[in-house]
Design goal:
The chain is of the alpha+beta class and 189 residues long. It has seven helices and eight strands; from the N terminus they run E-E-H-E-H-H-E-E-H-E-H-H-E-E-H. The chain has helices spanning 30-64, 72-79, 83-91, 109-118, 142-149, 153-162, 178-188, and strands at residues 7-10, 17-20, 69-71, 98-101, 104-108, 139-141, 167-170, 173-177.
């Protein structure tokens, strides 16, 4: 049904005046209508996303109250932290965990409760004892290790890190005590 009259209206989106052919027209054209609908849909999605974590966490917490054993994901959800932080607590021995297999780590719920009772979560880490650097004649630099043992620099650094061997930085060169690295590499070979 078409009308023979026009009404002066103001567009809801761009605020410009236009001639509307019906009494319910709110926009000056399709472009303004699309833009308003896009903003409306985006705001609805944002609202839904903001409500979803609250609903998910409440639903996810319900089964955790009756469980005695937790995996790392559920422990992270229970504490409200990331899985990486749970692994950090395990690696620093602040949280006891049991490896059932390579891909399965279990944490007792009572161990999490003891973590908060002992208040060791915020305790400072003990400082590592820094040993004095031996004489330069008693040290290898990285290129000497590479030439002598025929292994890459990355492998050398991994061995040093894995075995908690002291390394010393002098200028741009890194040195390792010969007795430490010899004992590690000779046992490996």
């Amino acid at each position: 049904m078409s009308s023979n009259f026009t009404i002066q209206r103001k567009c809801v989106h761009c605020k410009q005046t236009f001639n509307a052919k019906t009494t319910v027209t709110r926009f000056c054209g399709k472009l303004c209508n699309k833009r308003v609908n896009a903003v409306k849909q985006r705001n609805e999605k944002i609202e839904a996303e903001n409500l979803q974590p609250v609903i998910l966490s409440a639903q996810a917490m319900q089964p955790l109250k009756n469980v005695e054993f937790l995996d790392t994901q559920k422990a992270a959800l229970l504490l409200g932290v990331s899985r990486n932080f749970i692994y950090h607590l395990i690696n620093t021995r602040k949280l006891v965990a049991y490896n059932l297999s390579v891909r399965r780590t279990i944490i007792l719920k009572r161990d999490i409760e003891q973590l908060f009772q002992s208040r060791t979560l915020m305790a400072p880490l003990p400082k590592k004892q820094v040993s004095k650097m031996p004489a330069m004649d008693d040290c290898y630099n990285m290129s000497e290790l590479h030439e002598k043992f025929k292994i890459s620099d990355a492998a050398i650094y991994n061995l040093i890190k894995r075995n908690s061997t002291d390394k010393f930085q002098v200028g741009r060169f890194t040195y390792v005590a010969k007795k430490n690295i010899d004992s590690i590499l000779l046992n490996q070979i």
